[in-house]
From TrEMBL:
Its main location: cytoplasm. Belongs to the flavin monoamine oxidase family. Its cofactor is FAD. Residues 6-46 form the Rhodanese domain. The gene is LOC114841755. It comes from the Eukaryota. It comes from Betta splendens (Siamese fighting fish). One of its GO terms (biological process) is spermidine catabolic process. It holds the Pfam family Amino_oxidase. The lineage of its organism: Eukaryota, Metazoa, Chordata, Craniata, Vertebrata. One of its GO terms (cellular component) is cytoplasm. The keyword Aminoacyl-tRNA synthetase does not apply. InterPro entries: Amino_oxidase (IPR002937), FAD/NAD-bd_sf (IPR036188), Flavin_monoamine_oxidase (IPR050281), Rhodanese-like_dom (IPR001763). This is Peroxisomal N(1)-acetyl-spermine/spermidine oxidase-like.
Protein backbone atom coordinates (compact mmCIF):
# COMPACT_ATOMS: atom_id res chain seq x y z
CA UNK A 1 0.00 0.00 0.00
CA UNK A 2 1.68 3.24 -1.06
CA UNK A 3 -0.30 5.82 0.94
CA UNK A 4 -1.76 4.07 3.94
CA UNK A 5 -5.04 5.51 5.20
CA UNK A 6 -5.03 6.83 8.77
CA UNK A 7 -6.99 4.56 11.06
CA UNK A 8 -7.76 5.28 14.71
CA UNK A 9 -9.19 2.57 16.94
CA UNK A 10 -10.93 3.79 20.11
CA UNK A 11 -10.43 1.33 22.97
CA UNK A 12 -7.71 -1.24 23.62
CA UNK A 13 -9.93 -4.15 24.65
CA UNK A 14 -9.68 -7.45 22.78
CA UNK A 15 -11.91 -6.15 19.97
CA UNK A 16 -9.75 -3.07 19.30
CA UNK A 17 -6.54 -5.07 19.58
CA UNK A 18 -7.78 -7.68 17.11
CA UNK A 19 -9.02 -5.05 14.65
CA UNK A 20 -5.65 -3.23 14.75
CA UNK A 21 -3.63 -6.45 14.49
CA UNK A 22 -5.52 -7.60 11.42
CA UNK A 23 -5.08 -4.21 9.73
CA UNK A 24 -1.35 -4.15 10.49
CA UNK A 25 -0.96 -7.73 9.24
CA UNK A 26 -2.74 -6.71 6.02
CA UNK A 27 -0.23 -3.95 5.35
CA UNK A 28 -1.90 -0.87 6.84
CA UNK A 29 0.92 1.17 8.35
CA UNK A 30 -0.90 4.12 9.94
CA UNK A 31 -2.96 2.52 12.70
CA UNK A 32 -3.29 3.87 16.25
CA UNK A 33 -5.26 2.68 19.26
CA UNK A 34 -6.37 5.35 21.74
CA UNK A 35 -7.06 3.82 25.16
CA UNK A 36 -8.57 5.69 28.10
CA UNK A 37 -6.78 3.71 30.80
CA UNK A 38 -3.15 2.75 31.46
CA UNK A 39 -3.65 -0.88 30.40
CA UNK A 40 -4.80 -3.02 27.48
CA UNK A 41 -7.40 -5.77 27.75
CA UNK A 42 -10.47 -3.88 29.02
CA UNK A 43 -12.87 -6.47 30.43
CA UNK A 44 -10.17 -9.14 30.20
CA UNK A 45 -8.43 -8.43 33.49
CA UNK A 46 -6.32 -10.88 35.48
CA UNK A 47 -5.47 -9.97 39.06
CA UNK A 48 -3.91 -11.40 42.19
CA UNK A 49 -5.66 -12.59 45.32
CA UNK A 50 -3.22 -13.71 48.00
CA UNK A 51 -1.04 -16.19 46.14
CA UNK A 52 -3.60 -16.93 43.45
CA UNK A 53 -4.20 -15.61 39.98
CA UNK A 54 -7.84 -14.58 39.57
CA UNK A 55 -9.99 -13.30 36.73
CA UNK A 56 -11.69 -10.01 37.61
CA UNK A 57 -13.41 -9.99 34.20
CA UNK A 58 -13.74 -12.71 31.56
CA UNK A 59 -13.36 -16.18 33.02
CA UNK A 60 -14.00 -18.92 30.50
CA UNK A 61 -13.57 -19.67 26.85
CA UNK A 62 -17.21 -20.36 26.08
CA UNK A 63 -17.36 -23.22 23.59
CA UNK A 64 -13.67 -23.94 23.01
CA UNK A 65 -13.66 -25.54 19.55
CA UNK A 66 -12.38 -24.86 16.03
CA UNK A 67 -14.86 -22.08 15.28
CA UNK A 68 -13.95 -20.15 18.41
CA UNK A 69 -11.15 -17.62 17.74
CA UNK A 70 -10.27 -17.37 21.46
CA UNK A 71 -9.62 -21.10 21.51
CA UNK A 72 -7.60 -21.06 18.28
CA UNK A 73 -5.44 -18.11 19.38
CA UNK A 74 -4.92 -19.54 22.87
CA UNK A 75 -3.89 -22.88 21.38
CA UNK A 76 -1.52 -21.14 18.96
CA UNK A 77 0.14 -19.26 21.82
CA UNK A 78 0.35 -22.42 23.96
CA UNK A 79 -1.85 -20.96 26.72
CA UNK A 80 -4.14 -23.95 27.38
CA UNK A 81 -3.97 -27.06 29.54
CA UNK A 82 -3.66 -30.36 27.61
CA UNK A 83 -7.18 -31.29 28.75
CA UNK A 84 -8.67 -28.33 26.90
CA UNK A 85 -6.94 -29.44 23.70
CA UNK A 86 -8.46 -32.90 23.91
CA UNK A 87 -10.75 -33.44 20.88
CA UNK A 88 -13.39 -34.98 23.18
CA UNK A 89 -13.57 -31.68 25.07
CA UNK A 90 -14.06 -29.76 21.84
CA UNK A 91 -16.83 -32.05 20.68
CA UNK A 92 -18.94 -31.78 23.85
CA UNK A 93 -22.04 -29.72 23.18
CA UNK A 94 -23.10 -28.40 26.58
CA UNK A 95 -25.38 -25.68 25.13
CA UNK A 96 -24.26 -23.12 27.68
CA UNK A 97 -24.85 -25.36 30.71
CA UNK A 98 -21.54 -26.70 32.04
CA UNK A 99 -21.94 -30.05 33.84
CA UNK A 100 -20.91 -28.69 37.25
CA UNK A 101 -21.00 -30.93 40.31
CA UNK A 102 -23.19 -28.95 42.73
CA UNK A 103 -23.38 -28.60 46.50
CA UNK A 104 -26.71 -27.15 47.61
CA UNK A 105 -27.26 -25.39 50.96
CA UNK A 106 -30.41 -23.77 52.28
CA UNK A 107 -31.06 -20.73 54.45
CA UNK A 108 -31.91 -22.96 57.42
CA UNK A 109 -28.40 -24.39 57.37
CA UNK A 110 -29.18 -27.67 55.62
CA UNK A 111 -27.02 -29.32 53.01
CA UNK A 112 -29.22 -31.01 50.43
CA UNK A 113 -28.44 -33.88 48.10
CA UNK A 114 -27.94 -32.70 44.53
CA UNK A 115 -30.86 -34.96 43.46
CA UNK A 116 -33.23 -33.01 45.73
CA UNK A 117 -33.27 -30.11 43.28
CA UNK A 118 -33.06 -32.08 40.01
CA UNK A 119 -36.78 -31.52 39.30
CA UNK A 120 -36.36 -27.74 39.50
CA UNK A 121 -33.18 -27.84 37.41
CA UNK A 122 -34.76 -30.01 34.74
CA UNK A 123 -37.79 -27.75 34.52
CA UNK A 124 -35.61 -24.63 34.32
CA UNK A 125 -33.38 -25.98 31.55
CA UNK A 126 -36.47 -27.10 29.66
CA UNK A 127 -38.06 -23.65 30.02
CA UNK A 128 -34.95 -21.92 28.66
CA UNK A 129 -34.76 -24.32 25.75
CA UNK A 130 -38.46 -23.72 24.99
CA UNK A 131 -37.76 -19.98 25.00
CA UNK A 132 -34.90 -20.34 22.51
CA UNK A 133 -37.26 -22.32 20.25
CA UNK A 134 -39.99 -19.67 20.54
CA UNK A 135 -37.69 -17.29 18.72
CA UNK A 136 -37.32 -19.60 15.75
CA UNK A 137 -41.07 -20.20 15.59
CA UNK A 138 -41.90 -16.51 15.79
CA UNK A 139 -44.42 -16.82 18.67
CA UNK A 140 -44.24 -14.45 21.64
CA UNK A 141 -46.75 -14.95 24.46
CA UNK A 142 -45.25 -12.25 26.73
CA UNK A 143 -42.46 -9.66 26.53
CA UNK A 144 -39.79 -11.04 28.86
CA UNK A 145 -38.07 -14.28 29.80
CA UNK A 146 -38.92 -13.69 33.49
CA UNK A 147 -42.64 -13.25 32.83
CA UNK A 148 -42.72 -16.33 30.60
CA UNK A 149 -41.10 -18.43 33.32
CA UNK A 150 -43.49 -17.16 35.99
CA UNK A 151 -46.49 -17.83 33.76
CA UNK A 152 -45.36 -21.34 32.79
CA UNK A 153 -44.13 -22.60 36.18
CA UNK A 154 -47.56 -22.94 37.90
CA UNK A 155 -48.96 -25.01 35.02
CA UNK A 156 -45.95 -27.27 34.77
CA UNK A 157 -45.77 -27.64 38.56
CA UNK A 158 -49.46 -28.57 38.71
CA UNK A 159 -48.96 -31.23 36.05
CA UNK A 160 -45.69 -32.75 37.20
CA UNK A 161 -45.43 -32.29 40.90
CA UNK A 162 -49.09 -32.86 41.78
CA UNK A 163 -48.21 -35.71 44.16
CA UNK A 164 -45.51 -33.77 46.01
CA UNK A 165 -46.19 -32.33 49.46
CA UNK A 166 -46.10 -28.58 50.12
CA UNK A 167 -42.58 -28.66 51.59
CA UNK A 168 -41.10 -30.42 48.57
CA UNK A 169 -42.85 -28.07 46.18
CA UNK A 170 -41.76 -25.04 48.13
CA UNK A 171 -38.15 -26.21 47.97
CA UNK A 172 -38.38 -26.59 44.19
CA UNK A 173 -39.78 -23.04 43.97
CA UNK A 174 -36.81 -21.74 46.00
CA UNK A 175 -34.51 -23.64 43.66
CA UNK A 176 -36.09 -22.05 40.57
CA UNK A 177 -35.77 -18.66 42.22
CA UNK A 178 -32.05 -19.41 42.73
CA UNK A 179 -31.66 -20.51 39.11
CA UNK A 180 -33.21 -17.24 37.96
CA UNK A 181 -30.56 -15.33 39.95
CA UNK A 182 -27.85 -17.43 38.31
CA UNK A 183 -29.39 -16.71 34.91
CA UNK A 184 -29.25 -12.97 35.73
CA UNK A 185 -25.46 -13.40 36.14
CA UNK A 186 -25.17 -15.26 32.84
CA UNK A 187 -27.11 -12.53 31.05
CA UNK A 188 -25.60 -9.61 32.98
CA UNK A 189 -29.03 -8.24 33.88
CA UNK A 190 -30.88 -7.07 36.99
CA UNK A 191 -33.88 -9.28 36.38
CA UNK A 192 -34.90 -11.81 33.75
CA UNK A 193 -38.00 -9.57 33.44
CA UNK A 194 -35.72 -7.22 31.50
CA UNK A 195 -34.52 -9.83 29.00
CA UNK A 196 -36.61 -9.96 25.83
CA UNK A 197 -38.42 -13.23 25.24
CA UNK A 198 -38.33 -13.04 21.46
CA UNK A 199 -34.66 -12.06 21.30
CA UNK A 200 -33.34 -14.51 23.91
CA UNK A 201 -32.73 -17.05 21.15
CA UNK A 202 -30.45 -14.70 19.21
CA UNK A 203 -27.51 -15.85 21.34
CA UNK A 204 -25.75 -18.88 19.91
CA UNK A 205 -23.47 -21.31 21.70
CA UNK A 206 -20.46 -23.12 20.26
CA UNK A 207 -19.52 -26.73 21.00
CA UNK A 208 -16.80 -27.43 23.55
CA UNK A 209 -16.54 -27.77 27.31
CA UNK A 210 -15.82 -24.29 28.73
CA UNK A 211 -12.20 -23.96 29.87
CA UNK A 212 -10.02 -21.32 31.51
CA UNK A 213 -6.52 -19.91 30.97
CA UNK A 214 -4.25 -21.55 33.57
CA UNK A 215 -1.86 -18.56 33.46
CA UNK A 216 -4.65 -15.95 33.26
CA UNK A 217 -6.85 -14.60 30.41
CA UNK A 218 -4.58 -11.57 30.10
CA UNK A 219 -1.88 -13.86 28.64
CA UNK A 220 -3.94 -13.79 25.44
CA UNK A 221 -3.94 -9.98 25.42
CA UNK A 222 -0.18 -9.82 26.09
CA UNK A 223 0.59 -12.22 23.23
CA UNK A 224 -1.62 -10.35 20.78
CA UNK A 225 -0.22 -6.97 21.79
CA UNK A 226 3.37 -8.17 21.49
CA UNK A 227 2.75 -8.55 17.75
CA UNK A 228 1.77 -4.88 17.38
CA UNK A 229 4.33 -2.09 16.84
CA UNK A 230 5.19 -0.82 20.32
CA UNK A 231 4.02 2.76 19.65
CA UNK A 232 0.67 1.70 18.16
CA UNK A 233 -1.27 2.02 21.43
CA UNK A 234 -1.49 5.38 23.17
CA UNK A 235 -2.54 4.81 26.78
CA UNK A 236 -4.21 7.30 29.16
CA UNK A 237 -5.85 8.92 26.14
CA UNK A 238 -9.62 9.04 26.67
CA UNK A 239 -11.54 10.08 23.57
CA UNK A 240 -14.13 12.78 24.20
CA UNK A 241 -15.66 13.25 20.77
CA UNK A 242 -15.51 11.77 17.28
CA UNK A 243 -16.21 14.52 14.71
CA UNK A 244 -17.42 13.00 11.46
CA UNK A 245 -19.33 14.48 8.57
CA UNK A 246 -22.65 13.68 7.00
CA UNK A 247 -22.54 16.10 4.13
CA UNK A 248 -19.56 17.48 2.23
CA UNK A 249 -16.65 15.26 1.29
CA UNK A 250 -13.31 16.42 2.72
CA UNK A 251 -9.76 15.33 3.40
CA UNK A 252 -9.15 13.54 6.69
CA UNK A 253 -12.83 13.42 7.29
CA UNK A 254 -12.76 12.43 10.92
CA UNK A 255 -11.27 14.27 13.88
CA UNK A 256 -10.89 12.39 17.12
CA UNK A 257 -10.84 14.81 20.03
CA UNK A 258 -9.36 13.61 23.32
CA UNK A 259 -10.12 14.67 26.91
CA UNK A 260 -6.76 16.45 27.10
CA UNK A 261 -7.57 18.47 23.98
CA UNK A 262 -5.27 16.57 21.64
CA UNK A 263 -6.83 15.89 18.22
CA UNK A 264 -6.09 13.06 15.82
CA UNK A 265 -7.19 13.22 12.22
CA UNK A 266 -8.22 9.97 10.58
CA UNK A 267 -9.73 8.50 7.45
CA UNK A 268 -11.46 5.84 9.53
CA UNK A 269 -12.24 5.42 13.21
CA UNK A 270 -13.22 2.07 14.71
CA UNK A 271 -15.16 2.65 17.94
CA UNK A 272 -14.98 -0.32 20.36
CA UNK A 273 -16.10 1.32 23.62
CA UNK A 274 -18.48 -0.81 25.74
CA UNK A 275 -22.24 -0.43 25.22
CA UNK A 276 -22.52 0.80 28.84
CA UNK A 277 -20.16 3.67 28.05
CA UNK A 278 -21.98 4.37 24.79
CA UNK A 279 -25.36 4.53 26.55
CA UNK A 280 -24.02 7.09 28.99
CA UNK A 281 -22.04 9.23 26.56
CA UNK A 282 -23.58 8.81 23.13
CA UNK A 283 -25.03 12.35 23.16
CA UNK A 284 -21.53 13.87 23.37
CA UNK A 285 -19.27 11.17 21.87
CA UNK A 286 -20.31 11.90 18.28
CA UNK A 287 -20.61 15.18 16.34
CA UNK A 288 -23.00 15.21 14.56
CA UNK A 289 -24.89 12.84 16.85
CA UNK A 290 -25.59 9.26 15.79
CA UNK A 291 -28.55 8.85 13.42
CA UNK A 292 -31.77 8.27 15.36
CA UNK A 293 -32.13 4.58 14.52
CA UNK A 294 -28.64 3.87 15.86
CA UNK A 295 -29.29 5.95 19.00
CA UNK A 296 -32.49 4.06 19.68
CA UNK A 297 -30.75 0.70 19.34
CA UNK A 298 -28.03 1.84 21.77
CA UNK A 299 -30.81 2.73 24.20
CA UNK A 300 -32.89 -0.39 23.60
CA UNK A 301 -30.18 -3.02 23.94
CA UNK A 302 -29.50 -4.09 27.51
CA UNK A 303 -26.26 -3.67 29.42
CA UNK A 304 -26.29 -4.75 33.05
CA UNK A 305 -23.95 -5.69 35.87
CA UNK A 306 -22.49 -9.01 36.92
CA UNK A 307 -19.77 -8.98 39.58
CA UNK A 308 -17.58 -11.51 41.34
CA UNK A 309 -16.69 -11.75 45.02
CA UNK A 310 -13.60 -13.87 45.66
CA UNK A 311 -13.51 -15.47 49.10
CA UNK A 312 -10.65 -17.42 50.63
CA UNK A 313 -11.05 -19.97 53.45
CA UNK A 314 -8.52 -21.89 55.55
CA UNK A 315 -10.28 -25.13 54.76
CA UNK A 316 -13.16 -26.15 52.49
CA UNK A 317 -16.76 -26.52 53.71
CA UNK A 318 -17.78 -28.02 50.37
CA UNK A 319 -17.11 -31.49 48.90
CA UNK A 320 -13.81 -32.19 47.14
CA UNK A 321 -15.49 -32.80 43.75
CA UNK A 322 -17.85 -29.79 44.06
CA UNK A 323 -17.66 -27.22 41.21
CA UNK A 324 -20.48 -24.89 42.27
CA UNK A 325 -22.29 -24.06 45.51
CA UNK A 326 -25.95 -22.96 45.30
CA UNK A 327 -27.60 -21.05 48.14
CA UNK A 328 -31.39 -21.53 48.37
CA UNK A 329 -33.49 -19.12 50.43
CA UNK A 330 -36.32 -21.26 51.73
CA UNK A 331 -38.64 -18.25 52.08
CA UNK A 332 -38.25 -17.28 48.43
CA UNK A 333 -40.73 -18.34 45.82
CA UNK A 334 -40.19 -17.70 42.15
CA UNK A 335 -43.81 -16.62 41.80
CA UNK A 336 -43.57 -13.91 44.44
CA UNK A 337 -42.03 -10.48 43.96
CA UNK A 338 -38.40 -10.31 45.03
CA UNK A 339 -37.47 -8.17 48.02
CA UNK A 340 -36.62 -4.69 46.92
CA UNK A 341 -34.58 -3.31 49.82
CA UNK A 342 -31.21 -3.38 48.15
CA UNK A 343 -29.39 -1.93 51.19
CA UNK A 344 -30.44 -4.50 53.74
CA UNK A 345 -30.83 -7.58 51.58
CA UNK A 346 -28.42 -7.20 48.64
CA UNK A 347 -26.60 -10.39 49.61
CA UNK A 348 -29.73 -12.45 48.79
CA UNK A 349 -29.06 -11.79 45.12
CA UNK A 350 -25.79 -13.76 45.25
CA UNK A 351 -26.84 -17.10 43.80
CA UNK A 352 -23.82 -18.97 45.10
CA UNK A 353 -20.18 -19.67 44.33
CA UNK A 354 -18.00 -21.44 41.82
CA UNK A 355 -14.96 -23.28 43.20
CA UNK A 356 -11.54 -22.25 41.86
CA UNK A 357 -9.70 -25.39 40.79
CA UNK A 358 -7.29 -27.11 41.11
CA UNK A 359 -7.02 -26.75 44.89
CA UNK A 360 -3.23 -27.32 44.82
CA UNK A 361 -2.97 -24.10 42.83
CA UNK A 362 -5.66 -21.90 44.35
CA UNK A 363 -6.06 -23.17 47.89
CA UNK A 364 -9.63 -22.89 49.13
CA UNK A 365 -10.97 -20.00 47.08
CA UNK A 366 -14.57 -19.48 45.99
CA UNK A 367 -15.92 -17.02 43.47
CA UNK A 368 -19.33 -15.59 44.38
CA UNK A 369 -21.59 -14.26 41.59
CA UNK A 370 -24.03 -11.39 41.94
CA UNK A 371 -25.93 -9.44 39.27
CA UNK A 372 -28.12 -6.37 38.99
CA UNK A 373 -28.80 -3.39 41.25
CA UNK A 374 -27.75 -5.38 44.32
CA UNK A 375 -24.42 -5.97 42.62
CA UNK A 376 -24.09 -2.26 41.84
CA UNK A 377 -24.80 -1.47 45.50
CA UNK A 378 -22.25 -4.05 46.62
CA UNK A 379 -19.61 -2.15 44.64
CA UNK A 380 -20.06 0.85 46.92
CA UNK A 381 -19.29 -1.13 50.08
CA UNK A 382 -15.87 -1.53 51.66
CA UNK A 383 -14.11 -4.90 51.62
CA UNK A 384 -14.78 -5.11 55.39
CA UNK A 385 -18.54 -4.72 54.80
CA UNK A 386 -18.56 -7.27 51.98
CA UNK A 387 -16.55 -9.72 54.09
CA UNK A 388 -19.00 -9.26 56.97
CA UNK A 389 -21.99 -9.99 54.72
CA UNK A 390 -20.32 -13.07 53.22
CA UNK A 391 -19.37 -14.33 56.69
CA UNK A 392 -22.97 -14.04 57.93
CA UNK A 393 -24.21 -15.74 54.79
CA UNK A 394 -21.83 -18.68 55.14
CA UNK A 395 -22.69 -19.03 58.85
CA UNK A 396 -26.39 -19.11 58.05
CA UNK A 397 -26.20 -21.56 55.15
CA UNK A 398 -23.74 -23.98 56.72
CA UNK A 399 -25.19 -23.65 60.22
CA UNK A 400 -21.60 -23.43 61.39
CA UNK A 401 -20.62 -20.14 63.08
CA UNK A 402 -16.90 -20.96 63.06
CA UNK A 403 -16.37 -20.88 59.28
CA UNK A 404 -14.82 -17.49 58.61
CA UNK A 405 -13.35 -16.17 55.36
CA UNK A 406 -9.68 -15.17 55.44
CA UNK A 407 -10.21 -12.41 52.91
CA UNK A 408 -12.45 -11.23 50.08
CA UNK A 409 -12.04 -9.16 46.93
CA UNK A 410 -14.78 -7.94 44.61
CA UNK A 411 -14.98 -6.60 41.08
CA UNK A 412 -16.57 -3.20 40.37
CA UNK A 413 -17.62 -3.19 36.74
CA UNK A 414 -20.56 -0.80 37.12
CA UNK A 415 -18.45 1.95 38.67
CA UNK A 416 -15.64 1.49 36.14
CA UNK A 417 -16.07 4.77 34.23
CA UNK A 418 -14.91 3.20 30.94
CA UNK A 419 -17.24 0.20 31.09
CA UNK A 420 -20.32 1.21 33.15
CA UNK A 421 -21.49 -2.39 33.65
CA UNK A 422 -20.50 -5.88 32.56
CA UNK A 423 -21.88 -6.97 29.19
CA UNK A 424 -24.79 -6.66 26.81
CA UNK A 425 -28.03 -8.60 26.40
CA UNK A 426 -31.09 -8.18 24.19
CA UNK A 427 -33.58 -6.38 26.42
CA UNK A 428 -37.37 -6.33 26.05
CA UNK A 429 -38.35 -4.99 22.66
CA UNK A 430 -35.01 -5.76 21.00
CA UNK A 431 -34.61 -7.65 17.78
CA UNK A 432 -31.81 -8.72 15.44
CA UNK A 433 -32.32 -5.33 13.75
CA UNK A 434 -30.95 -3.53 16.83
CA UNK A 435 -27.70 -5.47 16.58
CA UNK A 436 -27.60 -4.72 12.84
CA UNK A 437 -28.05 -1.03 13.66
CA UNK A 438 -25.14 -1.21 16.12
CA UNK A 439 -22.91 -2.63 13.39
CA UNK A 440 -23.84 -0.16 10.64
CA UNK A 441 -20.94 2.21 9.82
CA UNK A 442 -21.24 6.00 9.40
CA UNK A 443 -22.19 7.69 7.20
CA UNK A 444 -25.15 5.43 6.55
CA UNK A 445 -25.96 4.26 3.02
CA UNK A 446 -26.90 6.92 0.48
CA UNK A 447 -24.74 9.69 1.95
CA UNK A 448 -22.56 11.75 -0.39
CA UNK A 449 -19.74 12.16 2.11
CA UNK A 450 -16.68 9.93 2.50
CA UNK A 451 -17.57 6.31 3.17
CA UNK A 452 -16.65 4.31 6.29
CA UNK A 453 -15.71 7.25 8.51
CA UNK A 454 -16.84 5.62 11.73
CA UNK A 455 -17.05 1.84 12.19
CA UNK A 456 -18.34 -0.04 15.22
CA UNK A 457 -16.90 -3.11 16.88
CA UNK A 458 -16.86 -4.52 20.41
CA UNK A 459 -18.78 -7.29 22.10
CA UNK A 460 -22.19 -5.59 21.78
CA UNK A 461 -21.98 -5.49 17.98
CA UNK A 462 -21.89 -9.23 17.34
CA UNK A 463 -25.24 -10.56 16.06
CA UNK A 464 -25.11 -13.85 17.99
CA UNK A 465 -21.97 -13.99 20.19
CA UNK A 466 -22.54 -10.67 22.02
CA UNK A 467 -21.36 -10.61 25.67
CA UNK A 468 -18.36 -12.84 24.97
CA UNK A 469 -14.66 -12.54 24.20
CA UNK A 470 -15.05 -14.49 20.95
CA UNK A 471 -17.86 -12.14 19.90
CA UNK A 472 -15.58 -9.14 20.58
CA UNK A 473 -12.73 -10.65 18.53
CA UNK A 474 -14.96 -11.54 15.60
CA UNK A 475 -16.48 -8.04 15.64
CA UNK A 476 -12.98 -6.47 15.56
CA UNK A 477 -11.97 -8.68 12.65
CA UNK A 478 -15.23 -7.89 10.83
CA UNK A 479 -14.51 -4.15 10.87
CA UNK A 480 -10.86 -4.63 9.88
CA UNK A 481 -12.06 -6.79 6.98
CA UNK A 482 -14.55 -4.11 5.98
CA UNK A 483 -11.68 -1.65 5.52
CA UNK A 484 -9.39 -4.22 3.92
CA UNK A 485 -12.01 -5.10 1.34
CA UNK A 486 -12.85 -1.40 0.79
CA UNK A 487 -9.24 -0.67 -0.14
CA UNK A 488 -8.77 -3.81 -2.19
CA UNK A 489 -11.86 -2.85 -4.22
CA UNK A 490 -10.88 0.80 -4.65
CA UNK A 491 -7.45 -0.27 -5.93
CA UNK A 492 -8.95 -2.20 -8.82
C1 LIG B 1 -17.42 -10.08 35.20
C2 LIG B 1 -17.30 -10.46 33.75
C3 LIG B 1 -17.18 -11.80 33.39
C4 LIG B 1 -17.09 -12.17 32.06
N1 LIG B 1 -16.93 -13.49 31.75
C5 LIG B 1 -16.74 -13.86 30.46
C6 LIG B 1 -16.42 -15.20 30.14
O1 LIG B 1 -16.30 -16.05 31.02
N2 LIG B 1 -16.25 -15.53 28.83
C7 LIG B 1 -16.39 -14.62 27.83
O2 LIG B 1 -16.24 -14.98 26.65
N3 LIG B 1 -16.67 -13.31 28.11
C8 LIG B 1 -16.83 -12.92 29.40
N4 LIG B 1 -17.06 -11.60 29.71
C9 LIG B 1 -17.27 -10.65 28.61
C10 LIG B 1 -15.95 -10.22 27.96
O3 LIG B 1 -15.04 -9.84 28.95
C11 LIG B 1 -16.21 -9.07 27.01
O4 LIG B 1 -17.25 -9.41 26.11
C12 LIG B 1 -15.00 -8.68 26.17
O5 LIG B 1 -13.81 -8.66 26.92
C13 LIG B 1 -15.28 -7.30 25.57
O6 LIG B 1 -14.21 -6.85 24.77
P1 LIG B 1 -14.35 -5.45 24.03
O7 LIG B 1 -13.05 -5.20 23.36
O8 LIG B 1 -15.59 -5.45 23.22
O9 LIG B 1 -14.60 -4.38 25.19
P2 LIG B 1 -13.65 -3.92 26.38
O10 LIG B 1 -12.78 -5.04 26.81
O11 LIG B 1 -14.52 -3.30 27.40
O12 LIG B 1 -12.71 -2.83 25.70
C14 LIG B 1 -13.13 -1.50 25.49
C15 LIG B 1 -11.98 -0.56 25.81
O13 LIG B 1 -12.40 0.78 25.51
C16 LIG B 1 -11.84 1.63 26.48
N5 LIG B 1 -12.59 2.90 26.46
C17 LIG B 1 -13.84 3.13 26.92
N6 LIG B 1 -14.18 4.41 26.70
C18 LIG B 1 -13.13 5.00 26.05
C19 LIG B 1 -12.90 6.31 25.56
N7 LIG B 1 -13.80 7.29 25.66
N8 LIG B 1 -11.70 6.56 24.97
C20 LIG B 1 -10.75 5.59 24.84
N9 LIG B 1 -10.94 4.34 25.31
C21 LIG B 1 -12.12 4.04 25.90
C22 LIG B 1 -11.93 0.86 27.76
O14 LIG B 1 -11.04 1.34 28.74
C23 LIG B 1 -11.57 -0.56 27.28
O15 LIG B 1 -10.19 -0.82 27.39
C24 LIG B 1 -17.12 -11.18 31.04
C25 LIG B 1 -17.21 -9.85 31.39
C26 LIG B 1 -17.29 -9.48 32.73
C27 LIG B 1 -17.36 -8.02 33.08
Amino acid sequence: MSMSPKIVVVGCGISGICAARKLVQSGFTDVKILEATARGGGRIKTGRFGNSIIEIGANWIHGPSEENPVFCLARQYGLLDPEALNPENQAMDIKGHPPWVPNVFTSSGRKLNAEDVYPAQDMFVELLSDISDLHTQGGEPCPSVGEFIRSEVPQRVAERWKDDDATTRSLQMSAISNLLKAECCVNGTHSMDEVGLASYGLYKTLPGLDCTFPGGYEGLVKNLMSELPSDLVIFNKPVRCVHWTQSEPRENAVIVECDDGERFTADHVIVTVPLGYLKKHQATLFRPPLPLHKMHSVQRLGFGTNNKIFVEFDSPWWDAECDAIYLLWEDEDVLEQQRTDVHSSWIRKLFGFTVLKPTEKYGHVLCGWIAGHESEHMETLSEVEVTRAITQLVHQFTGNPTITPKRTLHSQWFHDPWTCGSYSYPAIGCSAQDLENMIEPLPTKGSQSRPLQVLFAGEATHPCYYSTVHGAILAGWREADRLISHYSKSKL
